[in-house]
Specification:
245 residues, four-stranded antiparallel β-sheet, elongated, 8% strand
Length: 245
């Protein structure tokens, strides 16, 4: 599947690889198995406590809730990844590469009823064959994409080793980084740092200052004495070390 190129709100071109039908099917199947196992376990516990009718009602209610709430919860609270998608390295994103909204998640999952027909995702599979981004009907209506998460570029620690003191490693900034920096932005920052040495000095300075200015505002960083390039490198080092995850 060819890579799609989108422009983020920061006007940064990002390449996204749409997920194929096979990996999406496996992710949905895995989620279905997990939710069925949870519902069965709760139903078994209920049967040991309640009479047959009450236990059955709990099982049906649990199954219904998991069927409709599982994907919506993880797509909006789990950065677009259900356990099944996480296992297959997939993620649901807005068509602009942003996190999906609650409205988008609700829409794409309501339309899942149509995608599921007449058998296990028959309509969804058929629609995805004709869509350039391999979207099922629910994704088209909700304006979302299911992408394959790119493997991070090799990182040998050279970014972190340049500066021993990283002023961004404060609880407040680390919390903002976790909540406000998307995976596409992380990849962009890493590529920028690893390729900075190949840029002309003037272009490198201007680009680093522009990127640093944007993230100073986005992360409310008030430390002005740090240069733009050092701020970008410190931010990237934080993003690609375990402490920020």
């Amino acid at each position: 599947m060819a890579e799609l190129t989108i422009n983020t709100p920061e006007h940064v071109p990002i390449g996204l690889e749409p997920a194929g039908a096979g990996s999406r099917f496996l992710a949905v199947l895995l989620d279905a198995l997990i939710t069925a196992a949870i519902a069965s376990a709760i139903g078994s516990i209920a049967r040991t406590i309640l009479s047959g009718g009450g236990a059955t009602a709990i099982f049906i209610t649990t199954s219904f809730g998991l069927t409709w709430g599982w994907h919506v919860w993880f797509e909006t609270r789990g950065h677009g990844r259900t356990p099944g998608k996480r296992a297959l390295s997939l993620r649901v994103v807005d068509a602009r590469g942003l996190p999906v909204s609650l409205y988008q998640s609700l829409v794409r999952n309501i339309v899942r009823v149509i995608d599921f027909a007449p058998a296990f995702y028959g309509v969804g599979a058929a629609v995805s064959l004709f869509d350039p981004a391999r979207r099922r009907l629910g994704d088209i209506v909700a304006n979302t994409l299911v992408i394959r998460e790119a493997q991070p570029l090799a990182y040998s620690g050279q970014l972190a080793s340049v500066r021993r003191h990283n002023s961004l490693r404060t609880p407040r900034v680390l919390r903002l980084i976790r909540h406000r920096i998307s995976i596409e932005e992380r990849e962009f920052l890493l590529r920028l740092c690893l390729r900075a040495d190949k840029l002309a000095q003037a272009a490198r300075y201007d680009l680093m200052e522009d990127v640093a200015r944007f993230y100073r505002r986005k992360l409310a960083i008030e430390e002005e004495q740090i240069s733009g390039e050092n701020l970008v490198r410190d931010l990237t080092a934080v993003l690609f070390t375990k402490e920020s995850r």
